[in-house]
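Quick start: read one record
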Amino acid sequence: MISLRNFIILLITLLLFIPSVMGQKIDNSTEALEKLLVALANRADNFEHSLPDFIAIETLTQQTYKQPENKLLTNMVTVSRLIGRQLQVSKKGRQQLDFQETRQVQTINGKEVKTDRFKSKGPEVEGTFSSIFVSHFSSNDQKDFSFDLEPELKNFEGHTAYLIKFKNKIINRQYYNFEGKRLLSNQEGQAWIDKDTLAPLRIEYKETNLPKGILGLSYIVNYATVQIGEESFLLPIEAASEIQEKKIISRINQKYSDYKKFSTDVKLD
């Protein structure tokens, strides 16, 4: 058994060690940033095409609040089956895989619905499942941004992480969808990257080119390693967005769970 004296010494050592790790300076930050961006580009370039056909549960919670009282006005929870498929498509005479997401609504506020009659209400944003990671860190899209690496390591939910800040330097190439409209994207944000695996843990940013009547639009996506079949994949586990209007704030939360490989063992109703 450990003595009280030794326990206190161990506790003090840990308390001294943890902040020293989190505040650890990054040697040669320019070289470290280049290494991170290459690793992220490789992962982003293969992110969609490396996925098998799969099924997951997406739980979408949409809430609106009246301002300035912050009074809850609406609360809708939609549970859908998210299906990711690798489709064979022909582009310029060449056959290639094209990842496609489809959703089948199962319930709204706990009640079963007919998916062909479902129409979502309120503000919506699109692309949180895969587009956010790819559009920031793929080898083709990194050139749209300027990146800066924070000089010290950070603690992100128990992970030792790098913190990369980014901002658009080219603002005439990327677009985003908002309520069915395609708008030019201009962003600034940050990403936490696991020090050991160089995998993204969180990407968050805000749009500065806003739709008419919108005062603020921000996104957060959290990632984790998920088992599908016999393999592990880095996938989003939760996404959140906030839309600020003059008198209303809309908050949208998406949780992804129960990932399964799409095969003859998993049948669609």
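The first helix runs from residue 4 to 22.
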